[in-house]
Design a protein that fits this description.
Length: 654
């Protein structure tokens, strides 16, 4: 009965979504306050039934009810409880329900948070959110229902189990975090759409969603970083970003959202870029839905994607409807969207922000084109042309370096116009720092993009510290405060500005980590116990190889003793070769998997993979990679998160 209740809850939620839209549309025409209150409560009812359905499916996954097809496909009796829970977003229908679940949480918060304010905006905000919920309810009710019974004429004693690649702590966290980012942009989009419908194109809707935007951007950023961490820790190819289509699907809305986060500052402060901000939020939300389409349509081949299904055309249709309706409404409201102010100078902070935004959008288009070019080529010529990392790196590395430079230039410009004297005074120290850095890196033998990237990192870091030093000096002189008190109060009174600078510092450190990729070394070799081989100045000796049977897999465990060129002991690495579902009599159902081991320092990572084993001859096939500066990517990610949390913390008025 419980699975039937789950399906019924989804049906009821779909019905209430229709009633919500109807009641609020009638309210916008009649102005009857009772209809608005009814619409509010109906929208909360949608979310209530979605919550019920989600909790029911979660419970069925935990108790391994294999009478439900989804449970049988993505869990087994041997699957640990944590991964039974994470199976909610491991498959097609469950992940769509989880998407809807998060959207319902956000919709509930939005309605409750704005019960007594923004009365002009809220009707169309709720209608927009209800329509998005309705779309996902159509999918989960009529296309891919997570409560479908198992299609078998026998009792299913055990399920297929979760893909070994997904049996990782990071993958239990990464998808929900990414979804919080994807879904979070529904709220800013709903406010933007409502502003267009109400002809209210002032900065009111911007002020209403500023913190929502930062929260969504933060979760999307964390999700992308966690995805890179998972790829680095689990996939065994030694990297964290491969320009995979599904990676790109999350990166594209991040680019436009980052532009939007910067651009709304100008509209708030100067009442400019009204059209641009509308375009950016529409593009960001559309790309979030488009990314969901890429993941689920089967149109792109990716290690991250779901199997091909009938969802592709439905998602693509929804994407086109969003764009046609939103941009059509923008065209109708073009006169209302005209900004009363114009750019006054090329050397102003406003122009710096705008140029920064244009570069973000250009990078987004480059990623979009490279991702979909194989699909276009196959449709036009009948042959699929593969676009790999070399293309993306060749296009996006120069663009990324321009963005890095703009990260340092922007804060040094003044609002409206920067005088010649200010330009000289503000830029002297950062530029000299960057040039000195470039000279040092050239002296050390670095070349090309490595020198440019690292010297720009020095330039931006100098800019950030200059801004902090200038603010601290002003407070110590004016209020006679100590340096630490001045720093604390300065950040407290302008959290948005200085939180943004901390975010920029995190991005600088991530660029340092990215640059280290130019020095990667790798080697594959085979060893028996007692043999050794060397890679990048390190010696690797196989001192032991053992076997172990565990709850849900069988493992061969190697133990490698690592020493440096002088024979000094560094660490022991224990990469494993595993076979999941090893007891299954069907050999084709057994899933081999390499569980790698990493020794990480601030300077470099030693990355070991147990590729294969020759059990008869006691031979282990090992792959070693030495990856410099990778830890700085993760440190930069932590600082980015910290800076964003400061920026979105409520402002201190006094």
């Amino acid at each position: 009965m419980t699975p039937i209740a789950g399906g019924a809850a989804l049906n009821l939620a779909f019905g209430f979504s229709i009633l919500t839209v109807i009641s609020l549309i009638f309210y916008t025409r009649s102005g009857d306050q009772r209809l608005f209150l009814v619409g509010q409560r109906l929208s909360l009812t949608i979310s209530f039934f979605v919550f019920i359905a989600t909790f029911i499916l979660s419970y069925q996954l935990m108790i391994s009810n294999f009478d439900i097809d989804y449970v049988a496909r993505y869990t087994s009796l041997e699957t640990p409880i944590m991964y039974k829970i994470s199976a909610m977003w491991a498959g097609q229908s469950g992940s769509l329900l989880f998407w809807l679940f998060i959207l319902s949480i956000f919709a509930t918060i939005t309605v409750i948070q704005n019960q007594n304010k923004h009365h002009g905006l809220m009707p169309w905000v709720i209608i927009t959110l209800a329509v998005i919920q309705m779309f996902f309810l159509v999918l989960t009710n009529f296309v891919t229902n997570p409560f479908m019974p198992t299609d078998a004429d026998f009792v299913v004693a055990n399920g297929n189990g979760l893909n070994p690649l997904l049996q990782n702590v990071t993958m239990a966290i990464h998808p929900p975090t990414l979804y919080l980012g994807y879904v979070g942009f529904s709220v800013p989009f709903a406010f933007a759409f409502s502003a267009l419908m109400n002809k209210d194109t002032s900065s009111l809707w911007i002020q209403s969603i500023r913190r929502w935007t930062l929260v969504a951007w933060l979760f999307l950023s964390i999700g992308i970083i966690l995805g890179g961490w998972w790829a680095y820790q689990e996939l065994g190819w030694g990297g964290y970003w491969a320009w995979d289509p599904v990676e790109n699907a999350s990166f594209m809305p991040w680019l436009t959202a980052t532009a939007f986060v910067h651009s709304i500052i100008i509209q708030e402060k100067k009442d400019m870029l009204r059209v641009w901000n509308m375009v950016l939020i529409i593009l960001t939300f559309t790309l979030c839905i488009f990314g969901t389409f890429l993941t689920r349509s089967g149109v792109m081949s990716s290690v991250h994607s779901f199997t091909a299904s009938a969802l592709g055309p439905i998602f693509l249709s929804f994407v086109f409807i969003i764009m046609i309706v939103s941009f059509g409404l923008m065209y109708i409201r073009k006169n209302d969207l005209r900004s009363p102010r114009k750019m006054e100078s090329f050397t102003s902070r406003e122009s710096g922000f705008l140029f920064n935004n244009m570069v973000f959008v250009v990078m987004c288009f480059a990623v979009f084109w490279g991702t979909l070019f194989p699909v276009f080529s196959e449709a036009v010529r009948g042959t699929k042309i593969t676009v790999g990392p070399p293309f993306f790196n060749q296009i996006n590395i120069p663009i990324g370096l321009i963005l890095l430079a703009l990260t340092g230039i922007g804060p040094l410009l003044a609002w409206r116009k920067t005088s010649k004297e200010s330009l000289i005074r503000n830029f002297t120290f950062p530029i000299l720092s960057g040039l000195v850095g470039a000279a040092i890196f050239l002296f050390l033998g670095y070349k090309g993009y490595v020198v440019i990237s690292l010297s720009l990192c020095v330039f931006v870091t100098a800019t950030i510290f200059t801004e902090f030093a200038r603010g601290i000096k002003a407070r110590t002189n004016k209020f006679n405060e100590s340096i630490f008190v001045a720093l604390w109060r300065m950040v407290s009174k302008n959290r948005s500005r200085y939180g943004g600078y901390i975010v920029h510092l995190g991005i600088v450190l991530m660029f340092v980590g990215f640059t280290g990729h130019a020095f990667d070394k790798e080697k594959e070799f085979s060893l028996t116990v007692g043999e050794s081989d060397h890679v990048a100045g390190y010696e690797f000796e196989l001192i032991k190889m053992s076997e172990a049977e565990r709850a849900n897999h069988y493992a061969w465990i190697s133990e490698l003793r690592v020493t440096d060129h002088s024979g000094q002991f560094i660490t022991n690495l224990r990469p494993e070769k595993r076979v999941y579902f090893h007891k299954n009599p069907d050999v084709n159902r057994r899933q081999p998997h390499s569980e790698l081991d990493i020794y990480s320092t601030m300077n470099k990572d030693i990355y070991s993979i147990f590729s294969a084993v020759d059990n008869e001859n006691g031979i282990a096939f090992i792959k070693i990679m030495v990856n410099p500066l990778v830890r700085w990517v993760w440190i930069g990610g932590y600082i980015l998160v910290f800076g964003t949390m400061i920026a979105m913390w409520p402002r201190k008025e006094s």
